[in-house]
Each structure stands twice: as structure tokens, then as C-alpha cells.
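Milestone 3.1: sequence recovery, worked example.
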């Protein structure tokens, strides 16, 4: 079995570099979450390389429903990422990820604030089972600079996101999260990482990130949710976004 990073890359060569974030607003009732998500997979998969599920789905849905979603995604060749910003002690991280793997997830998004050694152990454990770890580096929200641009003393004066990038590289994670709203930071991370990891960028569209600029700055994948899901014609919106970044 190939690694998560390889599986995602191979899929992206034929279906593009967009990962659908199934982050629904309050208009989608809990009872309809599974139905909506399965419909998204079946109708939008030709232009997707993966899907992302966060607490919007993980909290209201049960293990069987989540497993069904992940199984369906795999049937259509998609990789599935659990977005839980995992950040805990080693034992909790290990048990949590094992349960995610048992439900069919391919990768998990983690918060590196747990520390470099914990991140390294989490990644090594995931890689033993051919699963992936994506580490936060700089988020897409406007207020992200308040935290991620903080200057830290460890290793000399540097921004927090710069330290997180160093930890990601030393831990051999599969990828990092850098918001599409900060193309200068995407460019910095791309230059420093030299393709040793993939860059995943949320924040396109609704939050103001420009898809073409994000890709040209060095991002490998766009994580897009509301821009597609809240459109009157989600398929058309996705096709348009796909065309934008491939032409």
C-alpha cells in the first residue's frame, strides 16, 4: 500500500488538487449530514482528490455513519482527512488516531503545539500504517496573525509559524496547513521545505484567498468548503475553480 502523500498525489494528477471541506452551515440539519456528504462525494468526485471532515460531522454522526462516508469516498478514489487539530499526550494521540484509522480515515490534521517530539511520534505511528499527518503552520482566518506571527525565543527570534515549519520538517509530516489568505507565507514555506512536504491551503473564496495566486505561491492543494457548498450549483462552482487552477 502506498503512503497517504503518494495516494493523494496520484489522484490529483487526474482529478485536480481540490479537497472538499464538508463544513456545513446551520441550515443543514444533523439528520441530513450523512445524506449531504454522500451526495457531495457522488456528484463532485470527478474534480476532487480528497474530502475533509471536521467536528461539523464527527460530533453529530456515529461510527457507522462516518465509516460509510469514508468507504464511499474510497470507492470513488478519494482520500479522507480528519480535521480535529489533534493536540494531546502521546497515549491519547495514539488511541485517537487508531480509532480514526479504524473508521477509514487516511490522514489527520494535528496541532504542533504539542511539541516536536510528540509530533514526531505521532507521525511515525501513522506512517507505520500508511496513514498521514498534516500539521498546522499558519491558519487562514484574518486573526491568525495574532498567534501564528508571534515572535518566539526558541532557536533565536523567529515567528511561531517558522518554528512550526521546522518542527514539521524534522518530524517528517506529510504536509502543513498554510492559509490561502497568506500567499507570502505559503511562498516562504514552499521555499524552505523544498518539496519535502505538501502544502494544504484553506481559505479560498469565502475568506478571500485567491486560488490562482495560492497555487502559484507554492501550495499543492486547496481545501475549499463554503465557496462550493453554498453555491446554487456546487458542481458548476467546483468545475470553475478546477479550471481556474489548471489553465
Amino acid at each position: 500500500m502506498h503512503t497517504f502523500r503518494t495516494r493523494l498525489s496520484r489522484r490529483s494528477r487526474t482529478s485536480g488538487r481540490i479537497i472538499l471541506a464538508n463544513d456545513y452551515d446551520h441550515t443543514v440539519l444533523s439528520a441530513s449530514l450523512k445524506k449531504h456528504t454522500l451526495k457531495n462525494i457522488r456528484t463532485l468526485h470527478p474534480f476532487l482528490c480528497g474530502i475533509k471532515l471536521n467536528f461539523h460531522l464527527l460530533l453529530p454522526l456515529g461510527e457507522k455513519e462516518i465509516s460509510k462516508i469514508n468507504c464511499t469516498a474510497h470507492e470513488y478514489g478519494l482520500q479522507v482527512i480528519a480535521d480535529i487539530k489533534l493536540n494531546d499526550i502521546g497515549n491519547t494521540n495514539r488511541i485517537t488516531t487508531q480509532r480514526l484509522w479504524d473508521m477509514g480515515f487516511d490522514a489527520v490534521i494535528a496541532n504542533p503545539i504539542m511539541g516536536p517530539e510528540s509530533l514526531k511520534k505521532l507521525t511515525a505511528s501513522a506512517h507505520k500504517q500508511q496513514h498521514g499527518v498534516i500539521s498546522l503552520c499558519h491558519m487562514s482566518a484574518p486573526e491568525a496573525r495574532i498567534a501564528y506571527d508571534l515572535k518566539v525565543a526558541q532557536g533565536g527570534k523567529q515567528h511561531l509559524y517558522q518554528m512550526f515549519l521546522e518542527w514539521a520538517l524534522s518530524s517528517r509530516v506529510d504536509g502543513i496547513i498554510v492559509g490561502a489568505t497568506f500567499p507570502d507565507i505559503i511562498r516562504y514555506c514552499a521555499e524552505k521545505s523544498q518539496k519535502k512536504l505538501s502544502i494544504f491551503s484553506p481559505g479560498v473564496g469565502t475568506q478571500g484567498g485567491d486560488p490562482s495566486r495560492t497555487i502559484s505561491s507554492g501550495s499543492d492543494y486547496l481545501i475549499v468548503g463554503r465557496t462550493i457548498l453554498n453555491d446554487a450549483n456546487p458542481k458548476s462552482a467546483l468545475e470553475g475553480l478546477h479550471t481556474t487552477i489548471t489553465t
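The radius of gyration is 17 Å. The chain has a mean pLDDT of 92.
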